[in-house]
Amino acid sequence: xxxSQVDEDLKQMHALMAMLQNLxxxxxxxxxxxxxxxWNSFMESHSGMYxxxxxxxxxxxxxxxxxxxxxxxxxxxxxxxxxxxxxTWEQRPYLFKFKNYRPITGKAEFMYQNSxxxxxxxxNGVVERIGIIIYDVTDQAINRVExxxxxxxxxxxxxxxxxxxxxxxxYWEECLNKEFKRCKRTGNTSxxxxxxxxxxxxxxxxxxxxxxxxxxxxxxNILQETMRETDIAGRYGGEEYVxxxxxxxxxxxxxxxxxxRTKVEQTVVEHQGFKVNYTxxxxxxxxxxxxxxxxxxxxxxxxxxxRSKESGRNTATIYTRN
Length: 322
Ligand SMILES: Nc1nc2c(ncn2[C@@H]2O[C@H](COP(=O)(O)OP(=O)(O)OP(=O)(O)O)[C@@H](O)[C@H]2O)c(=O)[nH]1
Description:
- The protein has 322 residues and is α+β, with helices and mostly antiparallel strands.
- The chain folds into two domains: 3-145, Beta-Lactamase (2-Layer Sandwich), CATH 3.30.450; 160-318, Reverse transcriptase/Diguanylate cyclase domain (Alpha-Beta Plaits, 2-Layer Sandwich).
- The chain contains eleven helices and twelve strands.
- The protein has helices at 3-22, 41-47, 51-54, 59-62, 68-81, 138-159, 169-186, 200-207, 209-226, 250-266, 294-310; strands at 26-31, 36-39, 85-87, 113-121, 127-136, 191-197, 232-235, 240-245, 268-271, 274-277, 280-286, 316-318.
- Strand 1 (26-31) and strand 2 form a beta hairpin.
- It starts with a helix and ends with a strand.
- The relative contact order is 0.09.
- Guanosine-5'-triphosphate binds next to strand 6, helix 8 and helix 9.
- Residues 188-321 form the GGDEF domain.
- One of its GO terms (cellular component) is plasma membrane.
- One of its GO terms (biological process) is negative regulation of bacterial-type flagellum-dependent cell motility.
- It comes from Saccharobesus litoralis.
C-alpha cells in the first residue's frame, strides 16, 4: 500500500476515534475476557477514571456494581450469536453507577441508563470484542417516575373523601363488590356495618356547619382507630359511614359496633368554643347465601340501621328477616 494511502487511512482512523471519544454517549469496548480496551470521554468524565487507569482491567473488578452473572449471560450471546442486546432503565436503572450531576434532574441520585451491547466482528467474522453503548436517560426516567407518582396521587385523591380521608362512596362500593365476590368464591363471611350520626341536623343548626364538619372528622378518626387495618371503611353520605369487617360474623361485628358506639358516646368534640356530645346508630348485616349482590347487602345493613333509629337511636341492630 502506498504511503499516502496509509496516511489517509490513519487520518480517517484518528478522525473516527476523535468522534467516538467525544460522543455524548458512553462507549466501552471489551475484549473476549471482559477486559476494557476503550473508554471514551463520556465514561471518563462520569466515572472520574482515565482511560489508562482502566485499560486492560477486568470490567467486573473495576465496577463491582455490575452483576457479573447477569452481564456475562447477556454478553456471551452477543459474542456467540453476533447479535445486539439491549437493557433499559426500567429493567435495570443503570449499568455503571454514575452520580447524577444534572441540575434539572437533581432529584435522581444516580444516572439512569439504557445500554446496548454490540458485537464487533473482526475480518474473519469472529466476534472478538463487544462494544457497550451507554445512554444517559435520567431526564426521561425522572419524567416517567414523576408522572407515575402524580398519577398515583391522583388515583388516591379520586378514591378519598376530602373531609375524612376515608374512601369515598364510589370507590368503597367497588371494594364492597370485590369483597362480595371474594366471599362467594371462598365461602368466607364478612359483615357490613353501616352507621349514622343521630340528630346531626341539630348539631349543624346549634353549632354551625364547621363544627358539624369537625364532628364528622372526629367520628371518622374514631372509626379508623377502632377497626382493623384490613377492614375497609368509607364515608357513604353526609354523616353516614360504612365499614366492611373482613372475615367477621354478625356477632363479632356486634361487639365491634358496641365498642364504636360507646367510644362515640364518650367523646366530646371541642370546636370553636363549643363542646359537642353526640351518638350514633348502627346497622349490621352478615353476608348470607340469600344476598344476591353487593347493593342488596347495603340495603339490608341500612335496614338494620333504620331499626336502630326506630328503637330510639344510640344502638346497634343486627339485620334479621323479621
Ligand atoms: N356539617 C356538615 N353537615 C352535613 C354534611 N353532609 C350532610 N350534612 C348534614 O347532615 C344532616 C343530616 O340530617 P338528617 O338526614 O335529617 O339526619 P339527622 O339529623 O342525623 O337525623 P337522624 O339520622 O334521623 O338521627 C343534614 O342537615 C345535612 O345538611 C357535611 O359534610 N358537613
